[in-house]
Amino acid sequence: MLPSALSDFVALIFPRTCLACQQSLARGETHLCTACRTQLPYTDYHRLAPTDNPLARRFWGRVPMEYVLSYLRFLRRGRVQHLLHQLKYQGQREVGTALGQMYGQELASHGLGADLDLILPVPLHRRKLAKRGYNQSDTFAEGLATSLLVPWSAEVLRRNSFTASQTRKSRAERWQNVAEVFEVAQPEAVRGKHVLVVDDVLTTGATLEACAIKVLDAGAAAVSVATIACAEH
Q: pTM of the full predicted structure?
């Protein structure tokens, strides 16, 4: 009884709140409350055949992808936007780790991930990394790796130059902005492997496309991509 009583006392002094809605978590709930877990806009794209996956179509004719996956739909002023804001701007690293673990469990339960060899987060430039203190994509990669039992590394992919924000750019402008900013710093790490490249949000796909091309050029056998959320076209 003592551990439970102590846990209740700690929760009273330092209340745990849902990462999405900020309401207090009930006993047994972790990271997200039951209501948010039920109501989050899941994509369920991992349940679809590649030819039926609307995200996969964004890369058709550009770069061959095994899987194109995203956990949640990005909706403005909704729970997902709040989660991403907490992750990127409020120092809440556990958002990325928790969502990675949850999504990894979902993917594993559907047999996805068994053929993956390595998870690589899209890197931040050192200036942005120094300002934020961490790379939000690293946290998502770490969470996925924990559930999928696949190694991950923040050292293999490198961003060589600082780029302007992608937010207000067209697809063509986004592609020009990132086409040559990435490199595979450790080609031996990807050679002959199926690599999963992960990021926080998929919009046009330009950043993930640029990374995937570099990974394939370095000798990877196959590449897939996954994100926390995706913006609908």
A: 0.86
